[in-house]
Amino acid sequence: MSKSHQQLWLASLAATASTLGSAVFGFGLSLYLLAKTGSNISFALSVVIQPLVGLALMPVVGPFVDRHSKKAVILWSQLASIIALIGFALTFTQTTHLFALSIMLLIALRASDQFTSTAQQASKINLVEAEQLQALTGYQQVGQSLSGIFASMLGAALYAMLPFVWLIIAEVICEAIALIATWGLNFHFAQNQTLSSESQPHWQQFKSGFTYLSHQKALFAFITIAVGLNLLGTIDAVGLPVMLLKTMHWPAWRYALGDTAFGIGTLLASLQLSRRPPLTHPLQVAWRFSMMFGGWLAGLGLVGVLHAHTTVATIILVITQALLGWNQNWLNIPFSVWVQTTVPQDLQGRVFNLISTMVMAAMPLGVGLYTLVFSVTAISAFWWQPFVFAMAGLVVVGFSFLSIRLRHLDLSNP
């Protein structure tokens, strides 16, 4: 095995172990809190906490990553996660404030993840040869896809079979595997990475990241598209369970079929992109798939329209969700690779942190929007809810199209 391939597999292992462990533990923690406190908000904690932590740390994370060794940032943040988990394991059975302790743990883990993920994104360009960058991103997305498919099943199974403390131990083991894999990586393999020599204060460095983004027309246009898609795309997480479980009275297993199909779609796209040559015009590909995303989103409305034909509606749900997952990674991976190869290295920490934070911040807004929209009772839910899906999809298509056309951008030569 060549050194570059060894780097690729170590980086993929580190990302997969950390992602899978966090997803399994997060689902198990939600079940544990639901059983101990009876609070339904346990399943929404991560959705709420992650963007809030991201916004709070936005001025700090990017400049910090750009000024320090990416490897050191990742190792220390993973070690901080392990320490936080061990502290939780030693105290969660003795406290009378379990919910508050769990929130503190999630804040610590999300803060650590913010440093880890930003440093990982900013260091990819140095981990493998340029022609393997797309493959690395694809294989890391494979790990995330597998986590999406199996995390809830593994979390539920482990929670049912073992004491909750074993889920904490499993997460510590996963973080330790990620730490060891990261330790074995050469972060200067592809080219020498120099630390930022800027002597500006953190706030000035943060501001310079914003200034850079505002002057990059193509990059800023795609960030706008990503925020819009994340805002409107939350209908899949908020509106779909309401339509299927509450309005159509489907059993949970039918809804789970669609969820699993989405994960399989992301997995197939990740494998496709990891095995094919680098794309010549990645932004053109990402733009086309941003518009196609709206089409598949609108297609989910057919499930509600055909509610009387359960088998046909289920088939449409599974196919559409698989296409949404497949579409998502054909949009995300080309854009991510393009950013890694075009943004100056000493700005990548700030740029990736700003992008991820702005995109995540759209999620709670989308949750609030669709919670209100799907609460409308003046119109029959059997027609109103499919109509909302159709309109959300059409708005995504139009928004993506106009975000590029109104700026007169040439995506073949951005």
Query: How large is the radius of gyration?
Result: 21 Å
Low-confidence stretches: 192-197
| Run of helices and strands | HHHHHHHHHHHHHHH
- Strands, count: 0
Distance between the termini: 36 Å
Fraction of residues in helix: over 70%
**Category by helix and strand content:** mainly alpha
Mean pLDDT: 86
The main pleated sheet reads as: none
What is the 3D shape?
A: globular
| Proportion of residues in β-strands | under 5%
Number of helices: 15
Task: Write out key terms for the chains shown.
414 residues; mainly alpha; 15 helices; 80% helix; globular
Would you kindly provide a written description of the structure presented here, covering whatever features stand out?
- The two termini are 36 Å apart.
- By secondary structure, the protein is mainly α.
- It has helices at residues 3-37, 45-67, 70-91, 98-127, 133-161, 165-183, 202-215, 217-233, 235-247, 252-275, 282-299, 301-305, 310-342, 348-373, 381-405.
- It is built from 15 helices and no strands.
Task: Give the topology, please.
Layout lengths: L2 H35 L7 H23 L2 H22 L6 H30 L5 H29 L3 H19 L18 H14 L1 H17 L1 H13 L4 H24 L6 H18 L1 H5 L4 H33 L5 H26 L7 H25 L9
Structure, briefly:
The protein has 414 residues and is mainly α. The protein is 80% helix and 0% strand. The chain has 15 helices and no strands.
